[in-house]
């Protein structure tokens, strides 16, 4: 199949890569761009393991055609090192034992950061509802929910 | 307890890499020249395979069984009397026996192109009637799946005891027919295999998402006719196991053979459709339980007729019969059952071969026993709690040997029930019921045998028997402590907990301890991570290796301090004699870098020790728990909401309570899935009907409540620190407790649910049937 060039910004860097029209964003990130922190759990938009930030909002990279991302700004788990909210979430995820095998974790963190920024007043029920699109098979979610609530509470206190 | 040793909720050492997306799973590894594999799989459940047409021009890139004669069949026989042997071909030969069975491997530079190739293949087959129902699989005239067998069953086991007098003396008798659904374990990362041939070492290097790299190595060598030295298996980060990755895969054999043949790296990554359908492989049980009790709720006897749908083949290493045959030995559960009769059948059907899923047969057995006890309680007008307390093994009887020979090590089972009930406002639930609300309360109690070893497994006669677990402890020249274990950690946090064990013994800072695991070239042989065994077995082995290493360090340290032998001790990571002390770092430096300073009689084994460990007796630890659940039901829609969930759990001494909680919570979430959501239905033709995670429902954050956990800590008298295996426990109790709560809520309507999962459709049907 023919490959076409796609230009996009990934973690702040402009990239031009060749991809087949059928290539989804997750494969492009993990393959061409070596950003394997974005995981693939279902490739049909249910599990959330592939969640990345596209133009500032979380999106499932497995059901986004790479070609549809022409000109977009993508941020993956590898692109949040300077972000204070992500730093607080990482700290809270570890303190609350919000991860076991780590496979859901990058997607969870991208979703969690969006919840923290978008819903500063969210309570437990709301956090759980917002997490409905991210599956974790290991933790039973309690640690994840507590970690997000912890960061929300910290931010409200400052 | 120290702040970082056994008993500390130390944060996980492994977290950092996962939080930054730096975990390294099979799918993240792509060597130069990689070829991706897509499997052409059987579209039908039962057929005679008559031909495979390869796409024109692609003949060299499609490999069927005839193209890979170097792969021998997988054989996982059991020595249990009457077990019927069968072969599982890595690629189908002659017959197709379940939907999704691999037929040919198609290779291309990308997975998408490999799938194009698979789609272009032509398949010729003559359909045969499918055997899709385990209960009729043995009926006369049913087509035989393995044609050299007299009927479609791997094994039948029995225990005969005449119970015919019980009808006359019992105050209550109940009979229940119960069913659990076929499930897909669905770790978030599927399986994956990367095979490479190293021409320098003449060695196959197989990187696989597996829980048991050493067993996989043995199986690969056997089936490929290689020496074990020619095989190295690496398990990198693994995205969840739960039993799903405790198997030698046909796909591993095929990728390995292709890499050897082609001299190129070959990779297969399971996608979700393959995982859900081709590998829907666990939990499908059917029970008919009869139980008799006296007026006080004391069991007089029980009879169980159990059938497990074992699927089409016997998987390596656990075999097709582990699940069903175990039912006989674990059905009495935590109770003092006085009389017992059973029959179990491992039925052979045209479905994917069964694997032991977290809890193995216990989830089904606990469901059967506990719902039966509640039925007895309702019949006798007793509380669920009273019936449990009348039958549980009392603490003063520990260690207790039950009527089928299981030995429970320690614990206060009745106290777990009392604590769980005390944690819930049961009178308020009763008041709400009296006011007409459809709410219910349910209990389940169970114990879990973990870390059972040689004495238990040699009797099964399956391809492996766990023996002494070994671990290696060694210092690097700069004083870092390296631990090497054959068990693998894929979420359990062993990189942390084994460092805690080392700290407990040697006083080394856990930050200066590294765990090497998941590589057969670097670690001692082990049967791997299964059976809730890692913390007991590897924990014991690491402790022993560290103790011996400590003795060597003390001898060197004492000499360097010019202390009398026997006066030096190891404390806080240093050897001390009187006021003088020398750190383990300095001792390591002396051995490696300044050997001129070593005493003449130094142990020439140096600062590197391999030690073996096995508890004595090795019949296994028994953790136990009581789950107490409150549910609310919308009778119009059949929707069940879990209002409250309490777990009272005894895992003996907890090495890291935070991590144990995580295991209990995660297991319980999976059990909630088994109880309410997860089901892989098959139609009469043996076609799996749930192909996406939108059809096969995994519990999400809104389905799993905030579970409350209370720990009791009764040490096991048999293990190094008193720890018990507890990794599977959470997944055992939920279906029983939840369905008991549902049936408590439905009791005023005269309705009862008996089949899992208790979906809205099943609830509405039960309510309708009672009208
Ligand atoms: S991999 Fe994208 S949602 Fe599951
Ligand atoms: S930590 Fe394993 S899937 Fe979430």
TrEMBL record, chain A:
SUPFAM superfamilies cross-referenced by the UniProt entry: 2Fe-2S ferredoxin-like, CO dehydrogenase ISP C-domain like
Keywords from the UniProt entry: 2Fe-2S, Iron, Iron-sulfur, Metal-binding, Oxidoreductase
Residue ranges constituting the 2Fe-2S ferredoxin-type domain according to the UniProt record: 4-80
One GO MF term: oxidoreductase activity
Domain of life: Bacteria
UniProt-listed PROSITE patterns: 2FE2S_FER_1 (PS00197), 2FE2S_FER_2 (PS51085)
InterPro entries for this protein: 2Fe-2S-bd (IPR002888), 2Fe-2S-bd_dom_sf (IPR036884), 2Fe-2S_ferredoxin-like_sf (IPR036010), 2Fe-2S_ferredoxin-type (IPR001041), 2Fe2S_fd_BS (IPR006058), Beta-grasp_dom_sf (IPR012675), Diverse_Oxidoreductases (IPR051452)
Name of the protein in its database record: Carbon-monoxide dehydrogenase small subunit
The species this protein was found in: Belnapia rosea
UniProtKB/TrEMBL annotation, chain B:
A Pfam family it matches: Ald_Xan_dh_C
Source species, domain of life: Bacteria
Organism: Belnapia rosea
Keywords associated with the record: Molybdenum, Oxidoreductase
A molecular function (GO) term: oxidoreductase activity
Keyword Lipid biosynthesis: no
All residue ranges annotated as the Aldehyde oxidase/xanthine dehydrogenase a/b hammerhead domain in the record: 20-129
InterPro entries tied to this protein: Ald_Oxase/Xan_DH_a/b, Ald_Oxase/Xan_DH_a/b_sf, Ald_Oxase/xanthine_DH-like, AldOxase/xan_DH_MoCoBD1, AldOxase/xan_DH_MoCoBD2, AldOxase/xan_DH_Mopterin-bd_sf
Gene3D superfamilies named among the record's database cross-references: Aldehyde oxidase/xanthine dehydrogenase, a/b hammerhead, Aldehyde oxidase/xanthine dehydrogenase, molybdopterin binding domain
Keyword Oxidoreductase: yes
Protein name as annotated: Xanthine dehydrogenase, molybdenum binding subunit apoprotein
């Amino acid at each position: 199949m023919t490959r076409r060039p796609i230009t996009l910004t990934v973690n702040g860097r402009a990239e031009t890569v060749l991809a087949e029209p059928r290539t989804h964003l997750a494969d492009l990130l993990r393959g061409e761009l070596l950003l394997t922190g974005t995981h693939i759990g279902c490739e049909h938009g249910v599990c959330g393991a592939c969640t990345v930030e596209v133009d500032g909002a979380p999106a499932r990279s497995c059901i986004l055609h790479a070609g549809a991302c022409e000109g977009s700004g993508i941020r993956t788990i590898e692109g949040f090192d300077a972000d204070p909210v992500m730093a607080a979430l990482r700290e809270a995820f570890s303190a609350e034992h919000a991860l076991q095998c780590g496979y859901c974790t990058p997607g969870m963190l991208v979703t969690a950061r969006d919840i923290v920024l978008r819903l500063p007043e969210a309570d437990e029920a709301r956090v759980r509802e917002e997490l409905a699109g991210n599956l974790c098979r290991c933790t039973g979610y309690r640690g994840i929910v507590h970690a997000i609530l912890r960061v929300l509470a910290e931010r409200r206190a400052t | 307890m120290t702040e970082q040793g056994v008993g500390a909720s130390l944060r996980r050492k492994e977290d950092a890499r996962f939080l930054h997306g730096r975990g390294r799973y099979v799918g993240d590894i792509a060597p130069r020249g990689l070829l991706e594999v897509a499997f052409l799989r059987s579209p039908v459940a039962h057929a005679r395979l008559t031909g495979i047409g390869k796409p024109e021009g692609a003949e060299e890139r499609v490999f069927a069984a005839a193209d890979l004669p170097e792969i021998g069949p997988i054989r996982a026989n059991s020595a249990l009397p009457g077990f019927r042997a069968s072969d599982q071909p890595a690629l189908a030969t002659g017959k197709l026996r379940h939907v999704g069975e691999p037929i040919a491997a198609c290779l291309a530079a990308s997975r998408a192109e490999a799938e194009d190739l698979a789609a272009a293949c032509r398949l010729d087959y003559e359909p045969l009637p499918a055997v899709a129902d385990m209960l009729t699989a043995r009926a006369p005239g049913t087509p035989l799946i393995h044609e050299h067998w007299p009927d479609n069953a791997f094994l039948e086991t029995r225990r005969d005891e005449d119970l015919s007098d019980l009808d006359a003396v019992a105050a209550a008798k109940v009979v229940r027919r119960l069913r659990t659904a076929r499930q897909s374990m669905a770790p978030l990362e599927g399986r994956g295999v990367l095979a490479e041939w190293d021409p320098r070492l003449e060695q196959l290097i197989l990187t696989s998402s597996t829980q048991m790299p050493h067993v996989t190595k043995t199986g690969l060598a056997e089936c490929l006719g290689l020496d074990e030295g020619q095989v190295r298996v690496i398990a990198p980060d693994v995205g969840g196991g739960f039993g799903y990755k405790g198997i030698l895969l046909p796909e591993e054999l095929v990728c390995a053979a292709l890499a050897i043949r082609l001299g190129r790296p070959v990779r297969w990554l399971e996608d979700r459709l393959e995982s859900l359908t081709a590998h829907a492989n666990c939990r499908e049980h059917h029970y008919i339980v009869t139980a008799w009790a006296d007026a006080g709720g004391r069991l007089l006897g029980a009879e169980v007729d159990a059938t497990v749908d074992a699927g089409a083949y016997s998987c390596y290493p656990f075999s097709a019969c582990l699940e069903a045959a175990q039912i006989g030995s674990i059905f009495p559960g935590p109770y003092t059952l006085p009389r017992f009769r059973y029959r179990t059948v491992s039925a052979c059907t045209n479905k994917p071969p069964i694997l032991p899923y977290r809890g193995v047969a216990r989830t089904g057995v606990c469901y059967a026993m506990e719902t039966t006890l509640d039925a007895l309680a309702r019949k006798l007008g007793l509380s669920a709690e009273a019936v449990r307390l009348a039958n549980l093994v009392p603490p003063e009887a520990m260690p207790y040997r039950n009527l089928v020979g299981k030995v429970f090590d320690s614990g206060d089972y009745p106290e777990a029930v009392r604590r769980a009930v005390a944690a819930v406002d049961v009178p308020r639930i009763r008041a709400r019921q009296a006011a007409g609300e459809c709410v219910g309360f349910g209990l389940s109690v169970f114990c879990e045998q973990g870390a059972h070893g040689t004495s238990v497994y040699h009797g099964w006669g399956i391809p492996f028997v766990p023996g002494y677990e070994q671990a290696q402890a060694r210092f690097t020249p700069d004083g870092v402590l390296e631990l090497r274990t054959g068990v693998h950690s894929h979420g359990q946090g062993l990189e942390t907990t084994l460092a805690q064990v080392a700290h407990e013994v040697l006083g080394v800072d856990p930050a200066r301890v590294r765990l090497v695991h998941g590589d057969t070239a670097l670690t001692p042989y082990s049967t791997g991570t299964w059976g809730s065994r890692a913390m007991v077995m590897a924990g014991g082995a690491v402790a022993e290796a560290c103790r011996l290493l400590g003795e060597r360090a003390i001898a060197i340290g004492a000499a360097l301090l010019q202390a009398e032998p026997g006066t030096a001790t190891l404390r806080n990571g240093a050897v001390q004699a009187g006021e003088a002390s020398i750190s383990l770092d300095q001792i390591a430096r002396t051995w490696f870098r300044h050997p001129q300073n070593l005493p003449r009689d130094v142990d020439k084994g140096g600062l590197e020790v391999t030690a073996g460990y096995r508890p004595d007796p090795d019949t296994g630890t028994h953790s136990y728990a009581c789950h107490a659940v409150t549910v609310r039901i919308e009778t119009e829609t059949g929707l069940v909401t879990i209002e409250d969930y309490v777990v009272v759990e005894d895992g003996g001494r907890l090495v890291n309570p935070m991590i144990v909680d995580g295991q209990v919570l995660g297991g319980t979430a999976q059990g909630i899935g088994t109880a309410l959501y997860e089901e892989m239905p098959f139609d009469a033709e043996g076609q799996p009907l749930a192909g996406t995670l939108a059809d096969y429902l995994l519990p999400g954050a809104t389905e799993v409540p905030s579970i409350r956990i209370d720990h009791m800590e009764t040490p096991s008298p048999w293990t190094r620190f008193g720890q018990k295996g507890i990794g599977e426990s959470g997944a055992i109790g939920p279906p029983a407790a939840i369905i008991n709560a549902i049936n408590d809520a439905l009791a005023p309507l005269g309705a009862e649910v008996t089949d899992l999962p208790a979906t809205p459709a099943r609830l509405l049907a039960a309510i309708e049937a009672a009208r």
